[in-house]
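Recall that a protein's primary structure is simply its ordered list of amino acids. Everything else, from secondary elements to tertiary packing, is in principle encoded there. The following example makes that idea concrete.
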Amino acid sequence: MRENIWKNIKLGFKTNKLAIAGAVMILLLALISIFAFLYPVDPNALSATERLQLPTTLHPFGTDDMGRDYLARCIYGGRASLLVGFLAMILSTVLGIVIGSISGFVGGAVDAVLMRIVDALMSLPTFLIMIVMNAYLKPGIQNIVLIIGCLTWMNIARIVRGETISLNEREYVIYAKISGQKTTATILKHILPNIMPTIIVAATMNIANAILMESALSFFGLGIQPPTASWGSMLSNSQRYIQQAPYLALFPGLLILLTVISFNYLGEVLRNVFEPK
């Protein structure tokens, strides 16, 4: 089974060259963010004499309105944006798995109540709720992860519920039920291992959505606060200098675009590999 999965993944990448480029881009951005400390420039170092300088060999991405090296800001901003996306994805995936598996496995009134809650949450304007929640919570990476994670788990819950319902009819699950195994043990041993590929695909898509949400919040000044950089906050700051220094918007905007597209292409390959034929 595993050999077939890896074979299908390799075939998927061979037939989709953009997915290969996306995977390489994600790996490259992740490595740059992890080893950001190797770049020997302080992203928060101010220099009044070097404000809004165009890209040079000394400052490859130029400098911002406070004379800070823009490449260093982009590197450390990527660390913040990718960290938020990854942690928010974990939180939303865990919530979606727990609620979706319980709803699909138990069924009945429990399923009806949980799905009505999911439907109600999905009908609400997510970004407006994010703004309201952010107003009551102190801005920071932890709270942004909490906000995004708690508002993006519903799709995963619906996917997990549907897969769980289909697995309920399998012989090994029926045997686990009639043999007296606990609900938690049955879900962990027989349900989750069989739907994990589907969960991986959904989680990949959720990372891209979380990065976009963080960027949007930071763009409106509601996300990661200065002096910590994120791609969204850098885009927000660049508005005042869009004519004088357009590169301030170009670099973080391009990084957000490449990251989101890369995750989408990667998710497309995984979906084609794991979806039922």
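The CA atoms of residues 3 and 9 lie 10 Å apart. The chain has a mean pLDDT of 83.
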